């Protein structure tokens, strides 16, 4: 359903994305993993053109958008097909929870207020926040904020949901409630592209896992292929370092003592 | 010379009559200036070609020169131009018919516009840019994002600065005395010289300004509390 071809992005002399290709079928969950600075977040932000790629093509529903010179109309169209959940939530601070979720419906989609309210209320019930409709974002916990962020994205019924490290800014205790909501969304058959450090989540729910490093896709495949039958050394090294056992493994090189 | 307490009250009675005009010269410039500032901000945000440079020049000029100069420039500059226009189009009116306080309001509106542009701009700079991206990500256009996300928040955080400017302008109206507009300070000078009781008259004027400022501050308090609701009541 979505085909992304040859995405390049350069920040000054820094070549952040060096030709990324990805095909996502309808209903698929794709997780993108990789070290910080590997370009995974930049890649995700290129998909709704929050970041303008220098080169590349994105096609959704057979509509082809050339990312080097998208027209205003194309940018707007693409953003209407997608919705994003941000690491830092980015809720509208001056609007209540329900207004945050209604905004994309009443303003971008010109839905009638009563209808939008009903949809928003329903989405907020799904994420377990039906009793916080009139609270302001500042009165919520991180986990609650992120669930509002998810409801806001879900409400507009996008073709693709983009998640940019949705749990990375949360207290360890609150990560669970957000992942739980995400699992529910997976069950509904939504198409999702998720940048994450939650390896268990990636292992258990994805149809495709993409490992990125230094602006390229190093390895991609099913979770089985990437996690169990890892082909590339760089992937193996990354997976070993993020595993809980890494800290207590014997190391080949003894570094300078820490203390 | 003896200090004349009762005269403070009788001087204040004269000055109180000028409060409506004084407030008009303080509030209207803020209102018109706000519209001017909004125009400037729109020019800057949407980078409207050609106008950005004009906007920069306008803000720079009016912030770099004193308000009294703006009043003089408008008061002395507009009438000849207005008369020319009137005679060219045979409108049959003359600039003498324009009340002097109108010139003061015009001049101070331009002054306020420059300061308000910077106040609103700093409010926008204080905003978290992620919310703008969030607005785009759910399909809002640039202008919808500006109207519905950027502007409301920029204005709310600017409330204390608006009040500050409002108080400043209330006091700036005192320079309207120079073009003989009967406002508080000007009236104080007149009643003082009629009665040779300068200190008493100016104490009276100070009390009036103080009370008016207290009223402005309490209005500010109400507005701030309303706006701070979304920030969890802290500000």
TrEMBL record, chain A:
Gene3D superfamilies with a match to the protein in the record: P-loop containing nucleotide triphosphate hydrolases
Domain ABC transporter positions: 2-239
The protein, known as: L-Cystine ABC transporter ATP-binding protein TcyN
InterPro entries, alphabetized: AAA+_ATPase, ABC_ATPase_HisP-typ, ABC_transporter-like_ATP-bd, ABC_transporter-like_CS, MetN_ABC_transporter-like, P-loop_NTPase
Any GO CC annotation of this UniProt entry: plasma membrane
Listed SUPFAM superfamilies: P-loop containing nucleoside triphosphate hydrolases
A family per Pfam: ABC_tran
Membrane topology field: Peripheral membrane protein
Keyword set includes Lyase: no
Keywords from the UniProt entry: ATP-binding, Cell membrane, Membrane, Nucleotide-binding, Transport
Record carries keyword Transferase: no
SMART domains the UniProt entry points to: AAA
């Amino acid at each position: 359903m979505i085909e992304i071809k040859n995405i390049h992005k350069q920040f000054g002399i820094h070549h952040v994305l060096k030709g990324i290709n990805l095909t996502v079928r309808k209903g698929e969950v794709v997780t993108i993993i990789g070290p910080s600075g590997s370009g995974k977040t930049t890649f995700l932000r290129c998909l709704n053109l929050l970041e303008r790629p220098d080169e590349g093509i994105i096609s959704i529903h057979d509509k082809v958008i050339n990312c080097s010179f998208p027209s205003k109309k194309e940018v707007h169209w693409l953003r209407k097909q997608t919705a994003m959940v941000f690491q830092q939530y980015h809720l509208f601070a001056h609007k209540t929870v329900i207004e945050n979720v209604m905004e994309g419906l009443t303003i971008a989609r010109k839905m009638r207020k009563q209808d939008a309210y009903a949809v928003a209320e329903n989405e907020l019930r799904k994420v377990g926040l039906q009793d916080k409709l009139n609270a302001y974002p500042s009165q919520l916990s991180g986990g609650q904020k992120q669930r509002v962020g998810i409801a806001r994205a879900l409400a507009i019924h996008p073709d693709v949901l983009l998640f940019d490290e949705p749990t990375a800014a949360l207290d360890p205790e609150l990560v669970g409630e957000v992942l739980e909501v995400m699992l529910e969304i997976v069950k509904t058959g939504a198409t999702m592209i998720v940048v994450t450090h939650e390896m268990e989540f990636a292992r258990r729910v994805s149809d495709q896992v993409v490992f990125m490093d230094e602006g390229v896709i190093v390895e991609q495949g099913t979770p089985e292929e990437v996690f169990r039958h890892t082909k590339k050394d760089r992937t193996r090294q990354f997976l070993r370092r993020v595993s809980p056992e890494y800290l207590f493994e014997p190391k080949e090189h003894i570094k300078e003592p820490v203390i | 010379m003896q200090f004349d307490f009762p005269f403070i009250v009788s001087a204040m009675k004269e000055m109180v009559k000028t409060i409506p005009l004084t407030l008009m010269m303080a509030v209207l410039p803020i209102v018109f200036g706000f519209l001017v500032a909004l125009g400037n901000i729109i020019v800057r945000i949407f980078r409207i070609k050609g106008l950005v440079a004009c906007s920069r020049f306008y803000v720079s000029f009016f912030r770099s020169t004193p308000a009294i100069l703006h009043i003089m420039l408008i008061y002395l500059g507009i009438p000849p131009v207005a008369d020319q226009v009137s005679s060219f189009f045979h409108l049959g009116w003359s600039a003498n018919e324009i009340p002097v306080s109108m010139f003061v309001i015009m001049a101070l509106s331009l002054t306020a516009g420059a300061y308000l542009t910077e106040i609103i701009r700093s409010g926008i700079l204080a905003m978290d840019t992620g919310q703008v991206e969030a607005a785009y990500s759910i399909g809002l256009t640039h202008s919808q994002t500006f109207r519905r996300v950027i502007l409301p928040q920029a204005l709310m955080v600017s409330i204390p600065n608006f009040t500050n400017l409002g108080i400043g302008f209330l006091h700036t109206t005192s320079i309207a005395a120079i073009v003989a507009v009967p406002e508080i300070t000007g009236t104080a000078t007149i009643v003082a010289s009629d009665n040779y009781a300068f200190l008493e008259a100016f104490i009276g004027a100070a009390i009036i300004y103080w009370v008016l400022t207290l009223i402005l501050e309490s209005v500010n308090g109400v507005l701030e509390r309303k706006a701070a609701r979304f920030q969890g009541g802290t500000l």
